[in-house]
Amino acid sequence: MASATPSFSAPAPEISEPEIGAAQIHSPAPPDLLRTAADPLLTEDLALSLLKRADLHPEIMERLARNANALKSRKVRIALASHPHTPRHVSVPMARQFYTFELMKFTLSPSVPADVKVAAEDVLISRLNTVTIGERLTLARRGSGRVGAALLLDLESRDGKIKDDERKIDANVKVKDAATVARETRVMQTALDNSRLTEAQVISAVLRPAATAALVYAVARHLKWSCRREIRVALLRTEHLSLARALEFSQEIPAPLLQEALASSRLPDQIKGQLLHESQTNSALRSALRHS
Q1: Which of 117, 163, 228, 243 suits 45 as a labelling partner, its CA being 20 to 30 A distant?
Q2: Which of 75-79, 86-90, 170-174, 223-227 has the lowest average pLDDT?
Q3: In sequence order, what DSSP letters do the residues of 226-276 get, joined into one string?
Q4: Angle, CA of 193, 199 and 205, to the nearest 5°
Q5: Main-chain phi, psi angles of 156, to 5 degrees
Q6: With 80 as the cut, is the pLDDT of residue 64 above it?
Q7: Are the beta carbons of 134 and 161 closer than 8 angstroms?
Q8: 225 phi, psi to nearest 5 deg
Q9: 278 membership: H or E segment, kind and range
Q10: Phi and psi at residue 105, in whole multiples of 5°?
Q11: Which residues, in sequence order, are CB contacts of 237 under 8 Å at separation 6+?
Q12: Which residues pair with 156 in a beta bridge?
């Protein structure tokens, strides 16, 4: 008796993982996009392709934020948090988990909403006391204006950590040589050269109670900032400006504006008195020349 020939059923054709969502990520139908965002087989490449779409609804972003498999990828998390339609309650907690330089790039991304950038900058600024000197130098050079402004108050101690606000560099103490001051203020000096730093941020920094003599000294001699009238007025309101610089700056400030600045200035009374005397003398001399 002949043995029966075994029958084999043809295996179902396999669908590769990319094919599961590749067609759906370009679909105009929201239900398709919702299914794709929640698909546990969604790969990193497909998720990144999906996040390139500018027309995604916030509900789709929330669905993707709950896709644990997709969020194993740091690239996906960064792209999701950076998308302009990602809800704030999704993007901000996600940004808090970023590494320092990821967070820096996140704050500079043009697609990130302004309020989310501010929240991310706050997180970055809160880390400044814990990051290394090399990281602070990079942040001072390439970070946002707000981060750069925060680093204007940075003073480096010998162990590479930020000094407490109470430990100020006194520009009048002769025991500190130029090399020591340069080392301790290198982050601050780098931040002053940050192209994203604004005049308003520099003024705010020098007028803060925590502003050091080193910061006032550096701004008063900076090629870009020292020639701006509003910054000169702000420096005249600080307690650390030297007499020589105060005399130089006051000569180019109108008398009414100078009097207003000195009325709220923390400069020593002797310096304020001399500045007012010089201003009155110069005004009288100019008036005499006009009538001669």
Answers
A1: 117
A2: 170-174
A3: TT-HHHHHHHHTSS---HHHHHHHHTTS-HHHHHHHHHT--S-HHHHHHHH
A4: 80
A5: -95, 130
A6: yes
A7: no
A8: -85, -30
A9: helix 269-290
A10: -65, -35
A11: 207, 261, 264, 265, 266, 267
A12: 162
pLDDT above 90 coverage of the chain, percent: 71
Tokens at 167, concatenated = 């430990």
Contact present, 194 and 177 (Cβ < 8 Å): no
Structure tokens at 157: 């101690």
Q: How many C-beta atoms surround the C-beta of residue 127 within 10 A? A: 13
For residue 273 the two structure tokens come to 């008195």
This prediction has a pTM of 0.80
The torsion region of residue 278 among left (phi > 0), alpha (psi -120 to 50) and beta comes to: alpha
Paired tokens of 247: 């005399």
H helix count then E strand count, the chain:
18, 0
Q: Which amino acid is at 30?
A: P
Of 226, 225, 284, nearest to 255 (Cα)?
Answer: 284
Residue 143 has which token pair?
A: 């970070």
**Helices 255-263 + 229-236 axis angle, to 10:** 40
How far are the Cα atoms of 203, 224, 242 from residue 126, in angstroms, in the given order? 21, 28, 32
Closest CA to 226 of 196, 208, 252: 252
Instruction: Give the residues across from 162 on adjacent strands.
Output: 156
Strand (E) or helix (H) holding 1: none
Phi then psi for 162, rounded to 5 degrees? -70, 135
pLDDT digits (tens, 9 = 90+) for 159-208: 444 444 433 444 444 435 666 667 778 999 999 999 999 999 999 999 99
Question: And the tokens for 19?
Answer: 């094919």
Question: How confident is the model at residue 169, as a pLDDT?
Answer: 42
